[in-house]
Amino acid sequence: MTSSRFARCLPTVLIALTMSLPVAAEQAVTKAQRAKDVYPGLFSGALMSAKPAILPVGILLRSGDSKITQKDLDAEIAKAPQDVRSQLKSNAFFVLENRATRDLLTVEAKAWAKGTGRKPDANANVLLRAYLDDLTGTIAVTDDELKEFFESNKDMMGGAAFDQVKDQLRNYVLNEKRQQFVDAHIGAIGDRRVVEVNKSWAARQYILAMNNPIAKARKSGKPTMVDFGADGCRPCDMMTPILDSLKKEYAGKANVLFVHVRKEQMLAARYGVESIPVQVFFDRSGQELFRHVGFFPKEQIVSKLAEIGAK
Predict the structure, then answer these.
(1) Are 273 and 201 in a shared domain?
(2) Residues 203 and 239 in one domain
(3) Which of 156, 233, 289, 302 is an active site residue?
(4) Are residues 87 and 100 in the same domain?
């Protein structure tokens, strides 16, 4: 029921080693130099604000004396199940960002542990969870937020009344709010320390990364809605006739796409899809403006498409 981009950033097949990356706020990277501006849509998390740079052959990422090499990346891909390795090789930038995210967060977690008098846990996963729990510990959910979520997702409630699902919803919405905070924290890593990414390598990866239906739609100058789903999923199957009609009604005015997550595992992972169906909306410039988890009635989709400029 949840879409967790943090989970996407730390998959079990991409366990990373700890790097020592010094904080260098005084060397802040300017916007014009950021990877997200030079390679729009390539990186979506920790490397958005990385600085494209000319690095020695074989070094893909560098921060201070630490680095991630092509050999390191190949080793990460080799850990993945055989059936997804070919997809990972075509999305190597995704592997790099996962590795860098893990390393950078681990460094911050160790600094947090030291600053709070906590003994750094030898288990990186335990340390990271404690660090993130501390960051999100004061986040709360109001009753108004719960009611708003309930009204917007009644189709997911199976006819249950608000009071019947209130406690379950509180946990879900709270986790979503915490996740949003974590996503923002990860996305700002490059603003807290200087990270350099291999310029020529990233340029090659950008060409590969843009060779998919979603990237092409986002660059088309038209509003776009992407539905991530799969066969045999009841709410996904319920979306099928809606998508078919929307494709006809919005032909030439907006892009309406369907991505089968079992066939396109890496594409789904790149967009942080952890449960299905998920509908993601992009404006004419390709910027994501909204996403919805679960069955989405046609009239609500039409309203959302109008909001993002599809008339």
Answers:
(1) no
(2) no
(3) 233
(4) yes
